Amino acid sequence: MSLTAKVSRFAATTPLDAVPPEVILRAKHSILDGFGLAVAGARTEGVRIAAAEVDSYGCQAGTSTVLGRGSVLPARFAAFLNGMAIHADDFDDTQLAVLPDRVYGLLTHPTAPVLPAVLALAERIRGASGTDLLTAYLVGVEVECAIAESIDPRHYEAGFHSTGTAGTFGAAAGAARLLGYDEGDTAAALALAGSQASGLRENFGTMTKPFHAGHAAEGGLLAASLAGHGFTTAPDILEARRGFFSAAGGGYDPGKIRDHLGDPWTFASPGVSIKPFPSGSLTHPAMTAFLELVLAHDLHPSDVAEVRVGTNRHMPNALIHHRPADDLAAKFSMEFCIAILLLRRRAGLAEFTDEVVNDPEVKAAIEKVRFEVDPEADAAGYNNMTSIIRVRLKDGRSLEARAAFAKGSPANPMSEAELRQKFAGCLEAGGIGAEAGLRAADLILDLENADLREITRLLSAPAVTGELWTRYSARW
User: Fold this and answer.
1) Alpha-carbon distance 421 to 406, whole Å?
2) pTM (whole model) above 0.85
């Protein structure tokens, strides 16, 4: 059996009752995270620009909800805008890697391309259930992650953004499953996905990075829709000599698909990390370690002479903005991320704004931070994201901390209460009322028994005037 056929069979035939309960629970956590991020991301300038472009098309016959906005659009455009919104704040989940050649220890953002595609189709298909959505999401994410892990690391090193590339395959696989396709039509959907898979890392720190996720969601949905109408394609798009693995990576490891697709599921091993901070994942180990130092020693900017952050030699290739001028660049600035924790002891959505980034106090704190390659961190391996923090205080003392993985990683996961708290913060940022948010969270975490229309209705409703989220904090 070819690799493309193996993936197609897995996507078309894997039943939900074959998925371990712990995998289903972790998937629901990422789905909850994705819904919240779609609401928060709808407020960002990039999504507003994209939504205005879609609105200019004058589409009338919509079936699928744009979360946080409440508009109803044709499925492909709802998938595009929701996918872009989930990734807009760089706050979405990340697939972890464990092999030493998997640079940075991460591969793709699995939820942003897949969830919007299957949600948009589930709303379009009369009678689609929460179980249908959950199953399609699970197989789509597993396909996305397996492809990202299989392709030669040159794919990412050379500049491809795997969320945009592998994510298109995941969205197509999930959409094909929701549409009830057999192996043949699923393979055709994957082939169409392969000809759309795109995204370049040079656009990190701009509106175009989240565009990659939206484009992947829309492209995967479009691929599946066309495949069901008899669109002709190549049968072996993944492994063919002129196929995806060869063209985009120059090689691949077939065992990652042949031997490990769904065995174990990615949500079980090596796992998926849910972000505690709305910034590039590579900043998170250092941020976790530094925040612990700040709180443990009650550090203030006036106490600190210098903070040195040491990592492996590849991490600075992604964290490229050393003196950011706007919120998007700040997400890929180790200097900003450390400085804002020193100043405010938190780094949430409220801290990643243009106003905060350009605050003179923030700029002064950034000058205290040195981001550099550390031989010890480099020797630990690219897959560990090891970050070493050395703080020199004005009174002559020195402090040190280190971390390989951050809060939110499988090794240090968020509790369900912490996940609900993050979801609540995203909904508050997006203007969704507290009562609606509480009800939506309960439904998402019981997705097999939930009414999808009720979830999308709740996540489109504006907050009641005067309603305060703090009144409901104890219930989260």
Assistant:
1) 18
2) yes
End-to-end alpha carbon distance in the chain: 48
Predicted confidence (pLDDT) at residue 475 exceeds the cutoff of 80: no
- Sheet strands (E) in 80-213: 94-95
HSE at residue 38, side-chain half, CA atoms within 13 A, is 35
* Structure-token pair, residue 269: 């091993």
- Interatomic CA distance for residues 144 and 216, integer angstroms: 11
C-alpha distances (whole Å) from 92 to each of 219, 408, 418 are 20, 11, 15
For the chain, give the longest Cα–Cα distance.
73
Distance, in Å, from the CA atom of 212 to the CA atom of 123, rounded to the nearest integer, reads 23
Tokens 């905060």 locate to 356
pLDDT value at 109 more than 80 = yes
79 by Cβ neighbours in 10 Å (0-12 / 13-18 / 19+) ranks as buried
Separation CA 426–CA 158 (nearest Å) = 33
In DSSP terms, 402 is beta-bridged to: 388
Cα 327 to Cα 231: distance, rounded to the nearest angstrom = 42
Q: Is 421 a residue whose pLDDT tops 80? A: yes
Q: What is the pLDDT of residues 116-171, one digit of tens each?
A: 999 999 999 988 999 999 999 999 999 999 999 999 999 998 999 999 999 999 99
Beta carbons of 113 and 144 less than 8 angstroms apart? yes
Rounded to whole angstroms, the Cα distance separating 364 from 342 reads 11
Q: Do the Cβ atoms of 170 and 114 come closer than 8 Å?
A: yes
